């Protein structure tokens, strides 16, 4: 039994990363009918931005210029990195996707892949092939709860992730910007007739998604402190699967599917050799999608894109 | 002149929809454009709202401003032109109240927005009963009411109406047009396009007849109603 709960704890942490990244895919897909295939690399960029911000604060603290406790550095790093990474997302929307808004969807998908490669290789060119080590902001403590070992990092990661998801949900439910995002997901073309700028909402959607990806990157860096320029590729694809599994534009769906993906991967790995993990895990998801092609909360309508 | 259109040309994928039409709307008027399906009526309204690109040489002026310099959202929020689109196009996943609030997205006069929403509920008490219901659950008549209410909250100078009678039962239709008349009397200029020519001409003071992308006739509504060609083509003999 302890073995089971041990894996539940691990799956919750692993799923948190997927869920946070999947939200960005899902929102952009829901609001703009666009797969942002650069999103995995925005996650990577966000992790690196987090690395620089954290290193800066740690350095300032160590040199005595601005002495801050580690927990405050963590909070500041997450908030500041989310803020900065949102501009990366908005820049990608402005430069790569906006000119293609009325182009065939395939063009936008290809552009996304290219933006991803530019982010990866740009990082490589700027920082070199050396992997970066994320600074240790939390002194890891392990608690033993009935035979299940839980670290304070794991608790923090899961709580911060869920907190961000709840905050996003409230934003989309309660604010006028969230309302405009939901309206765009339903009927893209008549939104301007409400006096709403499509460009503003598109930028906002990319900004929010990228901010969440950045948070995922930092939390990932805390759990697995080694960063490399290609860390976003496989992770991004898997989170994309979670977004599809959750259903178009569904925040709840993307969050639940992200956690489900974490559970499936972790539990498959406890039963089968780890080399078979992804093969079996994603076969299971393929079967689920065969029966629910629109995902858990997706609806079989597509947004109205034409007059 | 509130709205003046000169040589308006629009094409979709090389198919010409409007061949250079000219017309005008004065402040306070109700003007209708009648014509058959595919004549270019909706295209005309979409061009004014800047939802479709126009060809070079087209001129559109609203209250002395060049419409072509405005993006679609600014046409609503800065110039004050609202648009009730064909098929109503409500946001079915939003509640009635959310649809109305979204229409006020760019407005900063928050108190006046609340008053406008109250006014919509006074004009259409049925909508008030359905405040927190999703728009997709409304009946056809209620949907048209909400579409008009939404336009009323978004802007007040000029209202563009695209086939508001479509799919409505006669009684509901009459009450909708009564409300539109009242909206006009409160100072909103109205430009309406309709396939139901008799209804539109009885409602409007002036009218234009659009045929395959050209304006072929214009005049006072009473004259058009009496015109033999109009009678034959649009009023069922």
Briefly summarize what is shown.
The complex is a heterodimer of chains A (307) and B (237). By secondary structure, chain A is mainly alpha-helical.
What report would you give on this structure?
Chain A is mainly α and 307 residues long. Chain A has a single domain, classed as ABC transporter involved in vitamin B12 uptake, BtuC, CATH 1.10.3470. Chain A has ten helices and four strands; from the N terminus they run H-H-H-H-E-E-E-H-H-H-E-H-H-H. Chain A has helices spanning 2-32, 39-62, 70-97, 105-127, 152-174, 176-186, 198-223, 231-246, 251-271, 277-291; strands spanning 132-133, 142-145, 148-151, 226-227. Chain A has a two-stranded antiparallel ribbon with strand order 1-4. In chain A, strands 2-3 form a two-stranded antiparallel sheet. In chain A, strand 2 (142-145) and strand 3 (148-151) form a beta hairpin. In chain A, helix 2 (39-62) packs across helix 7 (198-223). Chain A starts with a helix and ends in a 16-residue tail after the last helix. The model of chain B has no long low-confidence stretch (mean pLDDT 95). Chain B contains ten helices and ten strands. Chain B has 237 residues and is of the alpha/beta class. In chain B, the strands form two sheets. Chain B has a six-stranded mixed β-sheet with strand order 6-7-8-3-9-10, sandwiched between helices. The A-B interface holds A 176, 179-180, 182-183, 185-187, 189-190, 192-198, 304, 307 and B 42, 46, 49-52, 71-73, 75-77, 82-83, 85-86, 89, 91-94, 98, 101-107, 150, 154-155.
């Amino acid at each position: 039994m302890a073995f089971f709960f041990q894996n539940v704890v691990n799956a919750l942490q692993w799923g948190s990363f997927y869920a946070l990244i999947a939200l960005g895919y899902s929102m952009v897909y829901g609001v703009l009918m666009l797969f942002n295939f650069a999103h995995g690399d925005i996650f990577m960029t966000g992790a690196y931005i987090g690395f620089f911000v954290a290193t800066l604060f740690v350095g300032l603290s160590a040199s005595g210029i601005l002495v801050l406790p580690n927990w405050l550095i963590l909070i500041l790093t997450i908030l500041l990195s989310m803020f900065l990474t949102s501009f990366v997302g908005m820049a990608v929307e402005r430069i790569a996707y906006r000119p293609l808004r009325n182009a065939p969807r395939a063009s936008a998908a290809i552009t996304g892949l290219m933006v991803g490669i530019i982010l990866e290789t740009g990082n490589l060119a700027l920082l070199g092939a050396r992997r970066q080590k994320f600074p240790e902001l939390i002194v890891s403590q392990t608690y033993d709860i009935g035979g299940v070992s839980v670290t304070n990092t794991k608790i923090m990661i899961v709580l911060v992730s869920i907190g961000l998801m709840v905050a996003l949900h409230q934003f989309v439910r309660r604010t006028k910007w969230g309302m405009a995002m939901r309206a765009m997901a339903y009927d893209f073309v008549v939104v301007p007739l409400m006096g709403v700028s499509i460009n503003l909402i598109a930028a906002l959607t990319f900004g929010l998604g990228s901010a969440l990806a950045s948070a995922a990157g930092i939390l990932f860096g805390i759990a697995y402190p080694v960063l490399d320029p290609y860390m976003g590729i496989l992770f991004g694809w898997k989170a994309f699967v979670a977004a599809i599994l959750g259903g178009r534009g569904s925040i709840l769906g993307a969050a639940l599917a992200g956690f489900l993906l974490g559970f499936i991967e972790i539990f498959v790995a406890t039963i089968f050799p780890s080399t078979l993990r992804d093969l079996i895990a994603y076969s299971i998801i393929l079967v689920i999608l065969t029966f629910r092609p629109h995902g858990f909360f997706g609806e079989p309508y597509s947004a109205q894109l034409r007059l | 002149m509130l709205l003046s259109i000169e040589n308006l040309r629009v094409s979709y994928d090389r198919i010409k929809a409007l061949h250079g039409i000219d017309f005008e709307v004065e402040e306070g008027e109700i003007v209708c454009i009648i014509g058959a399906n595919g004549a270019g009526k909706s295209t005309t309204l979409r061009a004014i709202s800047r939802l479709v690109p126009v060809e070079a040489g087209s001129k559109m002026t609203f209250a002395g401003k060049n419409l072509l310099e405005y993006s679609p959202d600014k046409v609503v929020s800065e110039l004050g032109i609202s648009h009730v689109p064909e098929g109503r196009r409500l946001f079915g996943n939003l509640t009635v109240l959310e649809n109305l609030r979204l229409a006020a997205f760019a407005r900063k006069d928050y108190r006046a927005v609340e008053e406008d929403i109250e006014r919509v509920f006074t004009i259409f008490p049925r909508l008030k009963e359905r405040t927190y219901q999703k728009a997709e659950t409304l009946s056809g008549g209620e949907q048209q009411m909400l579409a008009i209410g939404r336009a009323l909250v978004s802007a007040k100078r000029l209202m563009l109406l695209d086939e508001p009678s479509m799919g409505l039962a006669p009684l509901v239709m009459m009450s909708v047009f009564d409300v539109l008349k009242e909206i006009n009397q409160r100072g909103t200029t109205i430009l309406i396009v309709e396939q139901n020519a008799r209804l539109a001409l009885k409602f409007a003071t002036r009218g234009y007849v659009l045929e395959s992308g050209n304006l072929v006739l214009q005049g006072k509504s009473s004259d058009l109603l009496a015109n033999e060609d109009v009678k034959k083509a649009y009023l069922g003999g």
